[in-house]
Amino acid sequence: MNLHEYQGKKILESYGVEIQKGVVAENSKQAFDAAKELTNQTGTKWHVVKAQIHAGGRGKGGGIKLAKSLDEVKEISEKIIGMNLITPQTPAKGKKVHKVLISEDVYYPGESEIKEFYVSVLLNRSTGKNMIMYSTEGGMDIEKVAEETPNLIYYEEIDPLLGIQPFQTRKIAFDFKLKGNAFKAMTKFISSLYRAYIGSDASLFEINPVLKTSDDKVIAVDSKVTIDDNSLFRHPEFIKFRDLNEENPIEVEAGEAGLNYVDLDGNVGCMVNGAGLAMATMDLIKQSGGSPANFLDVGGTADAERVETAFRLILKDTRVEAILVNIFGGIVRCDRVAQGIVDAYKNMGDIINVPIIVRLQGTNAEQAKSLIEKSKLNVIAATAFEEAALKVNEVLA
Ligand code: GDP
Ligand code: MN
Fold first, then answer.
1. Which of 5, 159, 184, 268 has its CA 20 to 30 A from that of 304?
2. pLDDT in tens, 141-168
3. Is the CB of residue 139 below 6 angstroms from any atom belonging to ligand 1?
4. With contact defined as beta carbons under 8 Å apart, do 22 and 68 qualify?
5. Residue 62 CB–ligand 1 contact under 6 Å
6. How do residues 260-288 score in pLDDT, each as one tens digit?
7. What is the pTM of this model?
8. 101 vs 221: CA distance, rounded Å
9. Residue 118 catalytic?
10. If you classify domain 249-396 with CATH, what class do you get?
11. Which of these, 8, 15, 16, 21, lies nearest to 196 by C-alpha position?
């Protein structure tokens, strides 16, 4: 589950990580009040209006703007809320902004200069250890830094038994060339950030930029947080962070029906039992000249009701030109699945407007094939993998 910047910052704050303070607003009136409240709280003169969408690069896309008066906060919020924000990380058509985070201005000028760093905590899958990835080149595209100046990205691995050690946080602060209060603030920032990552069962905490202010504070200006979905059962406090506006509506509906559905960009819908077979089926579709429109694992019990729900979900995607059903009958018998498909088809005959290729293999596969052929429905039966691929190819041609 991905979080919004303001939600990630709430978690950070609860672990004692210093953040750029802010208040969320859903309309320009709330934004105006939020800005006033922030000035009372922090004494900030200026405010930053920040679009809350699940994508980075908002600054570049016009989703982050500095306001130098309360009236400007209102004006800018009016423009940003409801806008379709396009950034290098959104889909081409952009994402609609529903909320803004009104934040204190933390880039105020001072005697010593401000500095932007990059810090993230994530899992290094090749060593099986969490690591802190950091760079002196904060505030910009880290992908670009990785490509052009990879020597400016550093890694610090954390021993899972010992946890983060003081020498490690000092090493990071040292690599950032910090001194005095800023050095101390950075070591505290890093250790609290790491505790936040562990404590919330996250798979990513990316803070870009981490800012050293002109008065030597170290604060999180941005936050990109991903929580491991498999841990959500032990984090009831995060349920409220889920934002359905940010999710694919078909995926949400599939989740409610207990189906494992992932939306993709292609033209062939697939309905498969088992994740491994689903992956192989997606390869098969590619080989047959098509491109998978989704990943869908209907699980072990491919009964008529489940099959019907799955068909309805796949057909909501208007790019689908054919559906490939690939079921292995191990525990579930193929003839029962075939009967399920025939029943489901009859139930919703008018909404099925694309050819369906069904490959059933395993227990009673032959009976299943003849059941489908006898049904006289617009369903093409196959038993071999290549046969199914060929038939997908034929209907797409
Ligand atoms: P992103 O573009 O989606 O990564 O959003 P960020 O939260 O990282 O903000 C992008 C940029 O906005 C930062 O790199 C800063 O340059 C600018 N910005 C953020 N907060 C402030 C602030 O308090 N004052 C000023 N002047 N600029 C800010
Ligand atoms: Mn950022």
1. 268
2. 899 999 999 999 999 999 999 999 999 9
3. yes
4. no
5. no
6. 999 998 999 999 988 999 999 999 899 88
7. 0.85
8. 12
9. yes
10. alpha beta
11. 15
